[in-house]
Specification:
By secondary structure, the chain is of the alpha/beta class. Helix content is 28%, strand content 18%. The strands form two sheets. It has an eight-stranded mixed beta sheet with strand order 1-5-4-3-6-7-10-9, with helices on both faces. Strands 2-8 form a two-stranded antiparallel sheet. The radius of gyration is 19 Å and the shape is globular.
Length: 272
């Protein structure tokens, strides 16, 4: 496996777009004190979703330092992971180039399919142990949400498994997701009710499955160009709407980790 530019990547910033250059010139002259929220090179952020207080954490210490020791665990149960793998099988075509955000030692992709997978996470030891990765970078998306060292329109899919609850700058992260996705590319953000409570943002900590789903949907709608986000709470290999199946699903969700995935595409959803 190849680590991008060494074991720990320090990505170079993307070239400034003209609006941001102009804004910085105005700042230097004392007529403006903050640059625009985003520029065209990283997608267009049309609104901020979170207030300053909603971005706060009970533990404000650096996330990379907090996650300096590897945790070779999956954080959610096997039923959740089985549904996630099936969802990837249904939504990510064979041979796709995939960017796995919040990546660890496993990416949960279908084992029978070949993908070119690039990981981005907090712990180099976990990333180096992931057999699906062709390359990886270590990056704290809270302190460095923008300027990823990946070319625009270079991925067919972006995945994020049980990490979205920790993002303090989700609008900027989603702007970068939009930038690196190819037109028609898919982003799949999955989560459950588990969290490191002290590290989850205030907007997430004491929410419900419904409120968290709506929050993640709003992250997509903060960036211009994504399709309407879709919520998936159950993934089936075959369609079964029988009463017995519904009762079984209700029982399973009450016994294990509930499954949520919010999905959107860049510009359009492919027909195949």
């Amino acid at each position: 496996m190849q680590a991008l530019s060494g074991a720990v990547l320090r990505p170079q910033p993307l070239p400034l777009c003209q609006p941001l250059r102009a804004a910085r010139r105005r700042t230097a002259r004392g007529r403006q004190h903050s640059p625009p929220l985003s520029c065209s090179s990283a997608g267009e952020v049309v609104r901020e979703v979170l207030s300053r207080s909603e971005r706060t954490k009970l533990d404000p210490n650096d996330d990379r330092q907090w996650y300096s020791q590897p945790r070779f665990t999956t954080h959610v149960d096997d039923r959740f992971l089985g549904q996630l793998t099936e969802l990837y099988r249904q939504r990510i075509p064979p041979g796709a180039r995939v960017l796995d955000l919040g990546c660890s030692h496993v990416s949960h992709l279908p084992p029978e399919r070949q993908y070119d997978v690039v990981g981005m996470g907090l712990n180099a030891q976990e990333l180096a142990a992931n057999p699906r990765l062709s390359a990886f970078s270590v990056r704290n998306l809270n302190s460095d949400p923008s300027g990823w060292a990946h070319e625009s329109a270079s991925f067919d899919a972006v995945t994020c498994c049980v990490s979205v609850q920790y993002y303090q700058q989700p609008e900027r992260v989603m702007a970068e997701v939009f930038r690196v996705l190819r037109p028609g590319g898919v982003c799949i953000i999955s989560f459950s009710n588990r969290q490191f409570y002290n590290k989850a943002i205030a907007a997430w900590r004491d929410g419900t499955g419904y409120s968290r789903s709506q929050l993640v949907k709003s992250y997509f709608s903060a960036v211009s160009g994504f399709t309407a986000p879709e919520l998936v709470t159950e993934v089936q290999k075959t369609v079964d709407d029988s009463l017995l199946r519904r009762l079984t699903l209700l029982f399973d969700r009450s016994q294990g980790d509930p499954f949520y995935a919010v999905i959107a595409y860049r510009n359009f959803r492919p027909s195949v």
